[in-house]
Amino acid sequence: VTREIEKLKPEVTRYPFGEVNKGLSAGYIENGRIFINSKGNTFNMELELLALEGMHNVYNSLASGIVAKLMDITDDQLRESLADFKGVPHRLEKVATVRGVQYINDSKATNVNSCWYALQSMRSKTILIIGGVDKGNNYQEIEDLVTSKVKALIFMGKDNSKLHSFFDGKIDVIKDVDSMSDAVKSAYELAEKGDTVLLSPCCASFDLFDNYEDRGDQFKEYVRKL
Question: Which CATH number fits domain 93-224: 3.90.190.20, 1.10.260.40, 3.40.50.20, 3.30.450.20?
Fold first, then answer.
């Protein structure tokens, strides 16, 4: 990207950021912290204190942090915002913790790539609720993350044959459901203290729900009834 931008010779001020400090980086990660350089000052904050999980959200935090410092937002204000930001509904939305199990609504994940980012951010053993209207998905993209992080799969849809064809034999525990109430109930029965229940379906919602918002709202409703 940087090489292509150079070819265009834009008349703008650039503030590059990334995972590694390349000398002129406005934002980078080092020793478990994010660093933001602006106007001769350096802001830093522990990664574990960021409200939103996942490397993609670390990049989002770096980008927003750079803009904040350019706008003369104080370090305390920026730190509070990055620690308290709630995100938006249906995108890695933390719903509740029930008997030591965290429930996360990522209903907006209607493709494999979005599910990959969700799984990449998981820090504990995960019960993954997946399924719906397949959009030509290649589940190999999430295979390594599923086999390393997922303890049980819950297939939620009218036709789960493609999911079974790919995942059978790779995960010991697989359950089929055809409603959100049954999905949440099954996840509750399978989960142990310290686990995470993640709704990140990889698929469109139209077989059982009006849209992804309806799917996510039902997930939240049944979780809160536990």
Answer: 3.90.190.20
